[in-house]
Amino acid sequence: MWQMTGKIRLTKGRCECGAVAFEVTHIRETVTVCHCSQCRRTSGHLWASTHARFDDLTFTQDAGLHWYASSETAKRGFCTRCGSSLFYRMNDESGIGIAAGCLDDTSALRIGKHIFVADKGDYYARPGDADVFEAG
């Protein structure tokens, strides 16, 4: 179960083309950066996300939203029109990971930790700007 220490009230986000747009209340102010190979493949580099309760997320546009079962335990939400990688959700969790890069205002966000750093790509340096965990 995730815990929210600092919260940001209402914020909005969207994919690049606007076929998926949303509003979310009470998002976590820290960003988790995942370096696992699956996140790197689906995002093109690494996955940086904040977190919220799924019930606090309201879609204002979902014409392009598609959920991909990326494992037996989780799914990823992306836009079928522009390809933006937007969400990560464990099947049995009440929360949802939201890509930090798709939020309209990220001024209150900060990196809180890096996970699965042992799996990071060879082409970039080991992170040093927050707590680092070799696994999740």
The strand line-up of the biggest sheet is 8-9-10-11-6-5-12-13
Category from helices, strands and their pairing: mainly beta
Rounded radius of gyration (Å): 14 Å
Beta-strand portion reads 35-45%
The best one-word shape is globular
Helix content: under 10%
What is the H/E string? EEEEEHEEEEEEEE
Q: Enumerate the spans where pLDDT stays under 50 for 5 or more consecutive residues.
A: none
Mean pLDDT: 92
Structure characterization notes:
It is a single chain. The model has no long low-confidence stretch (mean pLDDT 92). An eight-stranded mixed sheet has the order 8-9-10-11-6-5-12-13. It is globular and about 40 Å long. Strand 8 (65-68) and strand 9 (74-79) form a beta hairpin. The chain is mainly beta and 136 residues long. The chain has one helix at 37-43, and strands at 7-8, 11-14, 21-24, 27-28, 30-34, 47-53, 57-61, 65-68, 74-79, 85-90, 95-99, 110-115, 131-132.
Task: Please render the helix and strand layout as text.
Elements: E1 7-8, E2 11-14, E3 21-24, E4 27-28, E5 30-34, H1 37-43, E6 47-53, E7 57-61, E8 65-68, E9 74-79, E10 85-90, E11 95-99, E12 110-115, E13 131-132
